[in-house]
Amino acid sequence: MKLLQQILDHNKDFVENKRYEEFATTKFPDKRMVILTCMDTRLLELLPKAINVANGDVKIIKNAGALVAHPFGSIMRSILVAVYQLQADEVFVIGHHDCGMSAIKPELVIEEMKKRGVDESAFETLAYSGINVEEFLKGFSSVSESVAHSADMIKKHPLMPKDVPVHGLVINPETGKLDLVVDGYGQ
Ligand SMILES: [Zn+2]
């Protein structure tokens, strides 16, 4: 059975048996915080357990690398919406060791794109349009530096209220141990 059908079958059963009831909550985070973290599969359940948050406790935003790549991109917009409209009073940026974005080699990804059928002319068109694909795919070499940089971008964002602490942490994806990089209360 294909993955989509498996999901739809499970979902029918989930709804029919009212298994949603144990997850009932509101859209406002009980712990009044928003987390930006990585989409890494190992963090899916480990991170909430390791920091003691459950359904209804937090707003959580995920992308590859827990990066704020652009001050006016969708990540920053999500953080601002969480702060101004959804009662998040603190921001946590949580990167992790052994992150795929620390090992990413843009030139290899581009090679892979070409192998998978993206035409050379697409790269030429993008280059003419001023888009640097290597830069677009770039990751980081140090996760703690990256977390500190993202936390700094959020803290200093012109649209952020000054009284919102922005913390930076790095989690171990095997043990769940957190290392503090930025204590937002000290800013
Ligand atoms: Zn990651």
Q: Which structural traits does this protein have?
A:
single chain, 187 residues, Beta-carbonic Anhydrase, Chain A, 5-stranded mixed sheet, 16% strand, binds zinc ion, EC 4.2.1.1, zinc, Carbonic_anhydrase_sf, carbonic anhydrase
Helix content range: 40-55%
Question: Which stretches are low in confidence, meaning pLDDT under 50 for 5 or more residues running?
Answer: none
Please count the beta strands (DSSP E, at least 2 residues each). Answer: 5
Largest sheet: 5 strands, mixed
- What is the count of distinct domains? 2
Total of DSSP H or I helical runs spanning 4+ residues: 8
| CATH architecture type of the largest domain | 3-Layer(aba) Sandwich
Per DSSP, what share of the residues sits in E-state strands of 2 or more residues? Answer: 15-25%
What is the averaged pLDDT score? 96
In the CATH scheme, the class of the largest domain would be Alpha Beta
- Which geometry do the CA atoms define? globular
CATH topology of the largest domain: Beta-carbonic Anhydrase, Chain A
CATH superfamily descriptor of the largest domain: Carbonic anhydrase
Q: Any idea what the radius of gyration is?
A: 19 Å
Distance between the termini: 53 Å
Distinct ligands = zinc ion
Order of strands in the sheet with most strands: 2-1-3-4-5
State the order of secondary-structure elements, H for helix, E for strand: HEHEHEHHHHHEE
- Judged by helices, strands and strand pairing, the structural class is alpha/beta
Give me the oligomer status: single chain
